[in-house]
Amino acid sequence: MNVENFALACRFLPSTYVEQGKQSRKSHENYIKILLEHKKLPVKGWDRSTIEMLLNEISTMDSNNFLGNAGIGEREGRIASPIVVQRHYGLAHGIGRSGDIAAVQPKAAGSSLMMKLTNAMVLDAIRIAGVRSASSCIVVPMATGMSMVLTFLTIKQMRPEAKYIIWPRVDQKSCFKAIFTAGFEPIVIENILVEDELRTDVQMIEKHLKGIPPEQILCIYTTTSCFTPRAPDSLEAIGKLCKEFEIPHVVNNAYGLQSSKCTHLIEQAARSGRLDAFIQSTDKNFMVPVGGAVIAGFDDSFISKISQTYPGRASAAPVMDLFVTLLSMGVEGFKDSLIERKGMYRYLQKRLQQVASAHGERLLVTPNNAISIGITLSSMPTKHATELGSMLFTRNISGARAIAPGVTKQIGSVTFENYGSHYNNYPYAYLTAAAAIGLKKDDVNTFARRLDRVFRKLIKPKQLKLKLENEIISVSSSNSSFRN
Amino acid sequence: MNVENFALACRFLPSTYVEQGKQSRKSHENYIKILLEHKKLPVKGWDRSTIEMLLNEISTMDSNNFLGNAGIGEREGRIASPIVVQRHYGLAHGIGRSGDIAAVQPKAAGSSLMMKLTNAMVLDAIRIAGVRSASSCIVVPMATGMSMVLTFLTIKQMRPEAKYIIWPRVDQKSCFKAIFTAGFEPIVIENILVEDELRTDVQMIEKHLKGIPPEQILCIYTTTSCFTPRAPDSLEAIGKLCKEFEIPHVVNNAYGLQSSKCTHLIEQAARSGRLDAFIQSTDKNFMVPVGGAVIAGFDDSFISKISQTYPGRASAAPVMDLFVTLLSMGVEGFKDSLIERKGMYRYLQKRLQQVASAHGERLLVTPNNAISIGITLSSMPTKHATELGSMLFTRNISGARAIAPGVTKQIGSVTFENYGSHYNNYPYAYLTAAAAIGLKKDDVNTFARRLDRVFRKLIKPKQLKLKLENEIISVSSSNSSFRN
Amino acid sequence: MNVENFALACRFLPSTYVEQGKQSRKSHENYIKILLEHKKLPVKGWDRSTIEMLLNEISTMDSNNFLGNAGIGEREGRIASPIVVQRHYGLAHGIGRSGDIAAVQPKAAGSSLMMKLTNAMVLDAIRIAGVRSASSCIVVPMATGMSMVLTFLTIKQMRPEAKYIIWPRVDQKSCFKAIFTAGFEPIVIENILVEDELRTDVQMIEKHLKGIPPEQILCIYTTTSCFTPRAPDSLEAIGKLCKEFEIPHVVNNAYGLQSSKCTHLIEQAARSGRLDAFIQSTDKNFMVPVGGAVIAGFDDSFISKISQTYPGRASAAPVMDLFVTLLSMGVEGFKDSLIERKGMYRYLQKRLQQVASAHGERLLVTPNNAISIGITLSSMPTKHATELGSMLFTRNISGARAIAPGVTKQIGSVTFENYGSHYNNYPYAYLTAAAAIGLKKDDVNTFARRLDRVFRKLIKPKQLKLKLENEIISVSSSNSSFRN
Amino acid sequence: MNVENFALACRFLPSTYVEQGKQSRKSHENYIKILLEHKKLPVKGWDRSTIEMLLNEISTMDSNNFLGNAGIGEREGRIASPIVVQRHYGLAHGIGRSGDIAAVQPKAAGSSLMMKLTNAMVLDAIRIAGVRSASSCIVVPMATGMSMVLTFLTIKQMRPEAKYIIWPRVDQKSCFKAIFTAGFEPIVIENILVEDELRTDVQMIEKHLKGIPPEQILCIYTTTSCFTPRAPDSLEAIGKLCKEFEIPHVVNNAYGLQSSKCTHLIEQAARSGRLDAFIQSTDKNFMVPVGGAVIAGFDDSFISKISQTYPGRASAAPVMDLFVTLLSMGVEGFKDSLIERKGMYRYLQKRLQQVASAHGERLLVTPNNAISIGITLSSMPTKHATELGSMLFTRNISGARAIAPGVTKQIGSVTFENYGSHYNNYPYAYLTAAAAIGLKKDDVNTFARRLDRVFRKLIKPKQLKLKLENEIISVSSSNSSFRN
């Protein structure tokens, strides 16, 4: 209510109570004020009512919610279903304009404001996460792979002769497919095995750079966050090569914002070499539903060029999810999540170590991967390793990956040996698990317990059958520990 | 509740009441059964509670909502904010897999089911709208422009030599930009003026087809729905050329599903010639928020190829919006909307005719455009025409477009004269309005009233000032007529 | 957002768009302003977003939602469950104070404002419904029966000698039980049969008034809305007696606000005689969930005395339901509902007439009951009449009442013959149905169709069995026609 | 979805995924099963989705939500506003029937089930809280005061001659007013001062019992939870007198369920003497909005008699709030709250002690009050004591009570000296604060800090002005620490 309405409320209530109500409203508005002024993550997370108050204010600013509005165009933000109105807080116009996905829409001032505030808060979060010199970012309503495609297509407009993308192998399909979707040819760089760990073959990259005319190379396309035993790419060394050979450098930092290891690599590569853009998923780093990515970099005009390459408007849903989540986390909540994740990494390592050694296995030694942890599956036949993976899945362990040698896979024009292990000839079957943001101690404990049982079952399946059935029943009848 | 729980409820309630409750549940479930069996739009729209019941069931089927689940991967569908959980009904995994945006996700059986049901219902709606022989479609969480890019990139994989896209001019930026974003060069075909209407220069297209090696042409890229005075392209004639020259044919049917004129053209072109894919916006045809498009066609394997080109997963939000909306509309609701729109077209025409003739103007004669209607602005100076547009905007008329000659615009490598009018040399300034799905009589009346006032104000601005201010006040103090 | 925040938004958006957003906010606030100024039902109903905006504003004014508040009392409006927070828009303090249920609470200015605005709008609605000289009302979070008890207890404080309540018989249990609960003894006045209709025996009342010392009579307790064949009581004649004998007059107007017949009787009795309070249900007149009643009258100090008799605070939920509903209806919506109800009365009468005459029955002639309609069940055995009632119930017809003679019922100290028919010796078995607010044509048609089938089945049960089973299936598989 | 629908889902999804979805649904349903079987608080709290699933199931069981239902009665559970539908999960019929507020409604099997489950869970919670031999309870949608009235009126039906209620003084208005509202005369028993504490004058009660014919006494009406310096009444001694003199005993246990001290007194009095009913608020003990009370006792038939005295149906809103809250808490959550409260009592005591001694005051010695804590305000003039209270209020400290001698108050026919202090002649002015359920450390700290400042300001107001203004600003700009 505005000043006038508060004054009218005095006809119903003693003015001291009205005054307190006014102060209360003011203190909510003060949060909004600080956000608009500072353009940063709030220090402390907001409560639900303040977040929804802002969403409602924003909604009011879009033309489809003007009370006297008459829309006579072909897109007027009409929403047929009340369920849909509600879940989007009445926002209908999406984000962006035909010319630029980061542009302000005349019909949708509110949505545009939400987008700009979200981009500002995400940039702040990126810096807090460790990429301190990042200067610009945009949230796009596409997952990482398609965001890669857009980035490649943008670079293509600046390097029209480019045909090749140099790419150190990482066995994750979407990011590799992005190369073909965008119309390029990959030059795959096999990794080097150092003890258990797979590292970038920087020399091989350099060899290629020397052998191919630079204008034919679109970019070097590296990866930070990945499944063990692969380590993050040697960004700093590659960044230096990119600078030297004047080749763009694009980083797949899918879930790397949550790890100071990955963000440190990015920051270093940008400072000492060249790094044009790093792209990360919103769901994996900020715990929102799948559907968005953040394209960030150190040169505002390049990031702006990407946003201008996007043809037309796009869904505001991933932006709204991020907007709400960042406001509710605040700097404190975000930092706490990062710290908690680090702790969970150590805890997961410890528990896996215990289970592994109880069954004659061991942790993989991969010191550079700060998220994903592996244990060998070398004491059992290969087919058991695969079976172990699916047994975990049917026991409601999601996300564990059992990798056994022998899988050959073709993607586009390229054939990969031992697909899944990032390497043609990895010496062991193994199992990986990730200490990702949001992981809870309960998850780790449940995982460790079930993994232990699966190990036993694989060794003496018959004997344990009865016991396991009991276990399943007890699982389904126990209450969950988390709340609303 | 299942049978067992209903039995237990008899400890609290007389069994006849429990039985009635069971029957009630069964009748809700019966709706779901019919949907799963028929894979079509329900005949009548569903009530809110049944829709939400199904959303909740679907949610339960995704692994992040399994009560005993322990996720130890890098993406486990964790959602940090309860607001976000709620607005997505707990769905977090998006749609698609790395290999195919239309594929089933193991971690997200519920989301996958929702996607498949949505695709099935949309296909049904497309057929009801008039494209009876459409055989396949996918809903993608990108707006029309980016969906065009994806389609072009898919064709590129099959026609690696292709460089050009033949495109009859339509002055809408996003769809044109898509050509550049995908990395192609447009061959722009100027329109032909027939009375007031702009039509496709089919002969010029044929000339180009004869002059360029076919493998260098990616496709002909036509448009159905567009602002008057442009007519939909001559799809049938172009379709025959495409068939003859073996050139793919992609149609921008942005908001054409709502018009039987446009869907008829598509159906005819597909039957008698060649038409590979037609792409439409979900927001403009189904009244959902911006963010999705439907890529549809007549050859399942081609549509499937497009879905396989998409790298990685994507937001499920536009799919959910459509899912909810289609269920709540049903066949009856959807057909009613189409019929109502046709009626509103006639009504808008009538009211515009009245205002126009009162001020010495007239309707543009554009018999082939069944959505957009224009009136001349020839009795006033050009700058007044432009002013009229912005005066309408500040009076809360959104979507009206006042086009005055003289605007030159460069997009990518191409320069357009008189941008906005689809033609280098259109003889009049004019104003357009669209009878789009969801338009209400009140909107038309408000528009006509305000347009009339703006006309008067442009003629005698001073005199009317006082009256207008009063009007603005009365607008803001009147209640809206629509309800929740 | 306040002026300051809108100014800050100009750092993100062009100021013209911000200005439009500001205007939009202002037009929402203008609704609130008019409400606060006029203290009446808005002319047109509000849209959902404006209603929720006001609820959120109101919520902000309660101390449990002050951002910096520290509560250290024993009741601080803490809410444990987020579901509960949400469904009450954060309001926790209920309404009223220890001294007065209509008083302003210092900790809950927002809730208090909502209560006062609701009372004001309800008073307006009562006047619109026909009781033009009503001067005061309070919404209490108790259903009609308990509200009667409170009213009786209030009068008792002014008439400490009172023991008896004179009550013309109406066979509705709660309202009669209220007499005993409040600690009084009823003097039951049997009705008079005039043709089919049961009317008040005014002479008998007068006789009692002359025979008992007035200070021993608490009040005369009459009824307007009731099941046919009973007519509303003769309020005007009774009102005159009350005036003459100085006896309070309390009216059970349970669902009578929806009928101009009932409100006219109240208005007349108050003008020409005495009528202290009339009490009506909120659910039956305003289509909200059960739980509230409106106690209204013509003397502010008496109504205020009732509110002061209520000990302590009470639930705000029924007030909020009414607040939301009245805002969304507006004067127009409320009047439309009343008019529609009248039309449905005629339609129900017509359809019942058809079914009745097809089976040798006829409408009861009860010209003074404008809501409830009856048909005779005289052509079938008594036990069939009862069976017919339960057959309708199991066929999902709720609210029809089949009354067969012969039921004896004791309530408190009183024994009623032929309970249900308001009369010791009603000549027919009969069936009643009511044209209540919110009834739809579909309901009437479904009822008529099923009633017709039940009639047939009672005559030749075996033969029709197969057909009926089919019918049940078709019912459960049809979609509902109403929307969200 | 039922078995049939899961089978149909296999047309869209691999059957293993469908199977997992089915298991997930089953595990949700298993929670419901355990609830229906055990009729107790679940051990662990439920997650939001399971709670809402059950609410939706319950909703489906009410006739207004039957898909094919046609309602032709005068109350059919129609809800006009979608906002209202949603906030009540479609439930409209309230609880109870005309004969009994705890009876099952034929039209509302779902609502009835919810009510019965809630009563069962509350009884479990009462036992957990310490009243182990409680045998029966009902949740009524009225606050404590009105529930007292209902209880008194019920006893009146069994003791028709009763006129008096014996009541040890407690200065809380509603509970005292209940005596007059129900039509009785209070016999006020002044308390006895023992050190700082006020205790029951049991001898005076006995004296009255001996002097008045027992049939004229309705009951003894005692209090457990109250503001310090009053102690809970001596329930055990009074219970014995009640047993001896055959007088009913009703306990106002307003917020006493949260304190094992109060529940212990109730349990003991019931075991060794007589205690007919104890009544508590739902908001103060279970953190739901104001509006409900629990009437509990040790004799099922007496509690049942109370529920039968209630005339008609009533709001289900307070029941739903409690239902949701108890499910989300579970035994663990409820016990944790109780334990946490005890800890906060000690913490509040410690912090108050510090502030008090810093300003020459001290804690009141009231060893029997385990919730409310007081400090003297003896070093300042009386008017300052009062001012201190309002200064705290304007500084957003709610619930603190500053009591200064000298207030005379009349309620009904009784005049109280020094109202507020439960005693005609309490020696000090003092300030109370309560460690009630849900109190957080932050609240205590904020209170202690502001109290300290207010103390200082009262001593040297001028000097501190500037500092305080700064403080206010810092309060309003700080973010809240709690989350959604």
Automatic annotation (TrEMBL), chains A, B, C, D:
Its EC number is 2.9.1.2. Belongs to the SepSecS family. Pathway: Aminoacyl-tRNA biosynthesis; selenocysteinyl-tRNA(Sec) biosynthesis; selenocysteinyl-tRNA(Sec) from L-seryl-tRNA(Sec) (archaeal/eukaryal route): step 2/2. TRNA binds at residues 271, 395, 460. It catalyses: O-phospho-L-seryl-tRNA(Sec) + selenophosphate + H2O = L-selenocysteinyl-tRNA(Sec) + 2 phosphate. Homotetramer formed by a catalytic dimer and a non-catalytic dimer serving as a binding platform that orients tRNASec for catalysis. Each tetramer binds the CCA ends of two tRNAs which point to the active sites of the catalytic dimer. This is O-phosphoseryl-tRNA(Sec) selenium transferase. It comes from the Eukaryota. The keyword Cytoplasm applies. It holds the Pfam family SepSecS. Substrate binds at residues 97-98, 105, 313. Its cofactor is pyridoxal 5'-phosphate. Keywords: Cytoplasm, Protein biosynthesis, Pyridoxal phosphate, RNA-binding, Selenium, Transferase, tRNA-binding. It is an enzyme of class 2 (transferase). GO terms for cellular component: cytoplasm. The record marks 74 as: May act as a substrate filter by repelling compounds with a negatively charged alpha-carboxylate. Its main location: cytoplasm. The modification N6-(pyridoxal phosphate)lysine is found at residue 284. PANTHER family: O-PHOSPHOSERYL-TRNA(SEC) SELENIUM TRANSFERASE, SOLUBLE LIVER ANTIGEN/LIVER PANCREAS ANTIGEN. GO terms for biological process: conversion of seryl-tRNAsec to selenocys-tRNAsec; selenocysteine incorporation.
